[in-house]
Amino acid sequence: MGSRVLVVEDDVTVAEVVVTYLKNAGYEVEHAPDGQAALDAAARAWPDLVVLDLMLPGIDGLEVCRRLRTTGAVPVIMLTALGSENDRVVGLEVGADDYVTKPFSPRELTLRVQSVLRRVAGPPPVHPDAPAVLTAGPIRMDVTAHRVTLHGEPLALTTREFDLLAHLLAHPGQAFTREELMKTVWGWEFGDQSTVTVHVRRLREKIEPDPANPTLLVTVWGVGYRLDPPVPAPSEGAPA
Predict the structure, then answer these.
(1) What tens digit of pLDDT does each residue of 18-68 get?
(2) For the residues of 17-67, what is the DSSP string, one character each?
């Protein structure tokens, strides 16, 4: 049996289509029609991934995502209404790994599910010649152990944040467009590039002393983003 996917959707027609496509793709699928049913289903059998509608009766999708994340690190793909950019951003900020905008293609959703599960199961997408430990100033990443510290303290990152930081640490000083990051880091050939913007902002909030004025993860205007390792200060007594 394939990975277990929990589909949380109150629209019966949408749920039937999604469940059918995912089952045909080889997944074990359970459907929950509302937020409480989703939490109950996850308590009975923890899913490998959750497809979660934002607009649910009772407990909404954002609260369901928050509660799931207090229990364990389950990948979440959120379903959002067309044009609800704020909902998409908030969804990513509470820990969703991806989102799909309604109306959507069931085939696209299935590809997104495959992509997220592949990224979660696979190693971080760093260059094969990159060292097992990557550093930049106060950041130290042990790629093999999937562990990051900042000033020696553990740094909690989502899977997508870890993958993005790993890629940038492996390519210091190199600028990447948002499209390049989507394709290279997460394997997406399509999707809203604002996803990259949101994850960059989340990373800055965790690694920058002043996220509003970043010095490590900088914006390259007209291009994208670049990680600039700090320049070590000259040793005391050394020539300037």
Answers:
(1) 999 999 999 999 999 999 999 999 999 999 999 999 889 999 998 999 898
(2) HHHHHHHHTT-EEEEESSHHHHHHHHHHS--SEEEEESS-SSS-HHHHHHH
Q: What tokens were used for 71? A: 């229990």
Residue 27's pLDDT is 95
Q: List, in sequence order, the alpha helices (H) in 122-234.
A: 159-170, 178-186, 194-207
Q: Domain 4-121: state its class.
A: alpha beta
Residues 25, 208: Cα–Cα separation, whole Å: 41
- Chain length of the chain: 240
Q: Considering the chain, what is the average pLDDT of its residues?
A: 85
Structure tokens given for 101: 């905008």
pLDDT at 236: 47
Distance in Å from the first CA to the final CA of the chain:
64
* Per-domain residue ranges of the chain: 4-121, 133-227
Fold of 133-227: Arc Repressor Mutant, subunit A (1.10.10)
Quick check: do 4-121 and 133-227 share a fold? no
Q: Are 7 and 51 a contacting pair, CB within 8 Å?
A: yes
